[in-house]
């Protein structure tokens, strides 16, 4: 089993005593990331975790190549709160397919702000490119297009 670990601390509350009264202050987003690219074979099980703390409680959204990930028969999503008030969100994929490869993003947000971190999951197999939406460009403006791909190792990316 491969595990990608992401720890994010978001919008911590600091209580300060000011002239005998307690006041709450919201902090800027603080995050401590520990995540790396992983390479696996089709059929393996993968577990991705995102750990967050915040006030108000954070919401976590998982993405694969920019598309929100939902539950399927092979993908389970969930979360729980630890004894230390850390919200742990997980994404488990059983029996991975080549199409599960790509850039995974864990986005954590609450009313104070949001932050995210991404890492690639490479699944051994031939290269492929995911379908992309139409893009409109303005003449003389810079345009950056990300090509969502999968497969590993990449010798060449097929152009469709």
Automatic annotation (TrEMBL):
It is found in: Membrane. One of its GO terms (cellular component) is axon. Residues 1-20 form the signal peptide. It is a single-pass membrane protein. Its main location: membrane. GO terms for molecular function: cell-cell adhesion mediator activity. It comes from the Eukaryota. InterPro entries: Ig-like_dom, Ig-like_dom_sf, Ig-like_fold, Ig_I-set, Ig_sub, Ig_sub2. Keywords: Cell adhesion, Disulfide bond, Immunoglobulin domain, Membrane, Repeat, Signal, Transmembrane, Transmembrane helix. Residues 28-122 form the Ig-like domain. GO terms for biological process: axon guidance; dendrite self-avoidance; homophilic cell adhesion via plasma membrane adhesion molecules. This is Down syndrome cell adhesion molecule-like protein Dscam2. The gene is Dscam2.
């Amino acid at each position: 089993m491969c595990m990608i670990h992401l720890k994010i601390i978001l919008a911590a509350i600091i209580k300060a005593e000011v002239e005998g009264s307690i006041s709450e202050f919201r902090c800027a987003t603080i995050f401590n990331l520990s995540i790396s690219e992983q390479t696996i074979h089709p059929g393996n099980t993968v577990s991705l975790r995102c750990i967050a703390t915040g006030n108000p409680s954070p919401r976590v959204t998982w993405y694969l190549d920019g598309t929100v990930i939902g539950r399927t028969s092979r993908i389970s999503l969930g979360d729980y709160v630890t004894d230390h008030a850390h919200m742990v969100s997980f994404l488990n994929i059983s029996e991975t397919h080549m199409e599960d490869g790509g850039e995974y993003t864990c986005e954590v947000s609450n009313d104070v702000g949001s932050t995210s971190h991404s890492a690639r999951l490479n699944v051994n197999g031939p290269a492929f490119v995911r379908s992309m939406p139409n893009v409109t460009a303005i003449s003389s403006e810079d345009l950056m297009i990300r090509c969502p791909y999968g497969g590993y190792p990449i010798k060449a990316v097929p152009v469709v």
